Amino acid sequence: MKSIGSLKRLAHYVKPYKIAFMLVLFFTVATVLFNSALPYITGLPTTEIARNVFNNEAINFPYIWKTLIWILIVGVGYSASQLLSGILITNVVQSAMKDLRQDIDKKINRLPVSYFDTNQQGDVLSRVTNDVDVVSGAMQQALIGIVNAFLSIVMAVGMMFYINVPMALLAIIMIPAALLISRYIISKSQTYFNSMQNALGDMNGFVQENMTGFNVNKVYGREAQTLEGFKAANHKLRYFGFRSAFISGLMMPLVQMTAYLAYIVVAVLGSYYVIGGVIVVGQLQAFIQYIWQVSQPMGNVTQLSALLQSASAAARRVFEILDEPEEKENKVDVPLPETFEGNVSFEHVSFAYTPTKPLIEDLNFTVKAGQTVAVVGPTGAGKTTLINLLMRFYDVNKGAIRIDGIDTKQMARSDVRSLFGMVLQDAWLYEGTIADNIRFGKLGATDYEVVDAAKTANVDHFIRTMPEGYDMFINSEGDNVSLGQKQLMTIARAVISDPKILILDEATSSVDTRLEALIQKAMDKVMEGRTSFVIAHRLSTIRDADLILVMDQGSIIEQGNHETLLAKGGFYANLYNSQFSEEAE
């Protein structure tokens, strides 16, 4: 089974801590040995007292006190060993989970953009957090519990045979019976545990998506529909959760039933043997305790089975991320120049997200260093895809994209992306100070460079009017600053990285006219001397572009400067005139 195989893979993360784990096994064995000795030792005073009474002798108190001291020693040894094994296993598991989380984090940074385009962010987050926590909890509780149970059963069965073979043979019939019951129930419940973890990921994805768009839901009165969607996801989780818990919960009573049957048989046969002098009463007492030492670990394993099945499903989901194909980093085949100028050319480029639906076919254009290129066209024309290809978020299916004559496929992705600065329509800031957010473009930037970049982006004045200025803390949602301020800060972040090529993707589409002018002024400063790609819906902002590419259905249908395209009276002219008419109205 894939899920069980995923649990086995966790051994890789335990291996670096094998010394501590061996100590865990040592103290676990010690715990089992002490626990196995207790029933036999506690039966000795009972046997001695029964013998004294039967022979009309005085109670042998010195012997009884001696055995009680041994019981105390064994009991303390049992408790100490159990405590030490618990502390050590906690350290091993948490260290292993720390390594697993680090591997997941490294893996996520090596995954291609296409993975996040095709998977819900909430589901990915659920795998990284919730599923890893489930695995951690299972290892914490079950790893030592199963080892303890196995050793306890072996030792208890061994002591049973030492006391009386026929009674032991009758008693251990419950072990294969319990195993068959457990195996059958696990085979039925595992499917539900897998479905439950997937349903939990779906629900987390739904919640994350709707919490992110909470204001939009409110504005459009989508509360009722959102509630219905959550109810459906919640009902699905309940459906699989109930069935997985119910079916796995049948194991405990069924296994315990086999133990009670063994109690009855041993009690009858053992009483007969005591009367016949085959065994003494203390041995019967110890034997019954050993049955309990077999049934209790088996009961514990059945209780842990639900946790293990849930963990195996969670581990499968975690390792699915770790097994995802990574963004392939090619070997650099050509020597790179010390400095790039910023010449860009698309040569017979074709691309499709899915093979059956080609989006861009035989795309050709050339941009000289320092030129400003505007990319316009209707939604779905391929504008954003063009940027994704330029940044090597995706690789072209055919043709080549060249920067200063070098095919980007012959360059390391990190080298390609180091040439670019981006300002997106959705201004993204992370939790931290304003200075840290600007410094994100160049982590080693000095305070002077941060301020200088902010001045270039026309945001220095705004920042200084805020509480604590550059040290003001941006919250996790980034909503304690205005949209325009956020956009200007992202421009400052692009400035500080000093890119050779700048990408401005709808950077002014969500702000008012006054702020648009301010942002445009900042962008003009940033674009000066740099090759710039501007995606804009407001055509009035790109009239001064050196080259305008008009895209439709993945192809460039027109190209030229503003005046040339207007004179043609084609697609661009119609689009521009329609916007001009709307603005006039």
UniProtKB/TrEMBL annotation:
It is found in: Cell membrane. It holds the Pfam family ABC_membrane. Residues 344-578 form the ABC transporter domain. The chain crosses the membrane at residues 20-41, 68-93, 142-162, 168-186. Residues 23-310 form the ABC transmembrane type-1 domain. It is a multi-pass membrane protein. This is ABC transporter. It comes from Candidatus Enterococcus willemsii.
